[in-house]
Amino acid sequence: KVLAKSPGIKINYLTTLPVQSFDSQPTGDNKEKSVLFYKHSLEVQLTGDYNAVYQYLRNLEMLQDKFYWASLKYEVADYPLANITLQIYTLSDQQDLVSG
């Protein structure tokens, strides 16, 4: 959906990164039951001009499911086109990213 709403963007690659887990009570000081969370990360490399990249990022932020940015690398390849490497992640209480 995000790509369809972002004309001028070409996806060069998309890959999943290893799932990371963490405990909501890592120190164990609290007697309440801790909850295990999972961080699901993706790395995507895009090509497009500044306006197309900007629109893609806005569309990504407007998704109902929240994604957080870990890093963004913007390199001008052949003006006005740039290569963008973006790492994004989402948090879940489920180990599998896709369920249902």
Percent of residues in beta strands: over 45%
For the record, give the distance between the C-alpha atoms at the N and C termini, rounded to a whole number.
Answer: 19 Å
Helix-and-strand structural type: mainly beta
Give the SSE order as H and E letters. Answer: EEEHEE
Q: What is the radius of gyration?
A: 17 Å
Global morphology: elongated
Main sheet summary? 5 strands, antiparallel
Query: Quaternary arrangement of the chains shown?
Result: single chain
Helix percent reads 10-25%
Summarize this, please?
It is built from 1 helix and 5 strands, in the order E-E-E-H-E-E. It has 100 residues and is mainly beta.
Lay out the secondary structure.
Blueprint (H helix, E strand, L loop, with lengths): L9 E7 L3 E4 L12 E13 L1 H12 L6 E11 L2 E12 L8
Antiparallel strand pairs: 1-3, 2-3, 3-5, 4-5
Which features does this protein show?
single chain; 100 residues; mainly beta; 5-stranded antiparallel beta sheet; 1 helix
Report on this model:
With 100 residues, the chain is mainly beta. 12% of the residues lie in helices and 47% in strands. It has 1 helix and 5 strands. The protein has one helix at residues 50-61, and strands at residues 10-16, 20-23, 36-48, 68-78, 81-92. Strands 1, 2, 3, 4 and 5 form a 5-stranded antiparallel sheet that branches. The longest helix has 12 residues, at 50-61. The two termini are 19 Å apart. The model has no long low-confidence stretch (mean pLDDT 87).
